[in-house]
Amino acid sequence: MDELGRKSIEEYKQSAKTPVIAVLDNIRSMHNVGSVFRTADAFLIEAIFLCGYTPQPPHRDINKTALGATETVDWMFFTTTVAAVHELKNRGYKVYAVEQTEGSTSLEKFTVNPEEKMAVVFGNEVEGVNDEVLQLVDGSIEIPQSGMKHSLNISVAAGIVLWEIFKNR
User: Which of 82, 122, 163, 168 has the largest CB neighbor count within 10 A?
Assistant: First the structure.
């Protein structure tokens, strides 16, 4: 572990965070939740907001994929994603949905403002981001895809989008 230069939990908690919050909108799978925790840890994301029926730690199925990231990444629970988005906007965050919508911005054309605090909403595995939430966000980011499916698992989408934001800050 020392050779890999990994932080201890205390060092992680004291580290400056990337001013990004991942918002999980009614995610069903505990494995997806755990995977987003792990990605958030990797990129020193500020926090995760778990909304609606999204599972919350502690749970062994979340821990199975999080591999300890639930101990490092701050998180909050909101009964609805709408409430989470209102809270974020009150705190001065720009909020973007990761969703294929009319007028969405393709990820490679999305500009990250390093001075801006931002949150990114990832939607349900089947339904995507809730329509009521889409009415509240500042924009939508779409991951370009060329295959037949035109959708990605939420944990994969989170990895791609959070990496792009992290590297462009």
Answer: 122
Classify residue 96: in a domain, yes or no: yes
First to last CA, the chain: 27
SS3 category, 162: helix
Burial class (CB in 10 A: 0-12, 13-18, 19+), 126: exposed
Tokens of 82: 């709408």
**30 assigned to some structural domain:** yes
Residue 133 has φ and ψ, to the nearest 5°, of -70, -40
Mean pLDDT of the chain: 94
Domain hosting 106: range is: 9-167
CATH number at residue 23: 3.40.1280.10
Q: What is the pLDDT of residues 107-129, one digit of tens each?
A: 999 999 989 999 999 999 999 99
- Output DSSP code: residue 107: G
Kindly tell me the burial class for residue 162, based on how many C-beta atoms sit within 10 Å of its own C-beta (0-12, 13-18, 19 or more): buried
**Single pTM value for the model:** 0.95
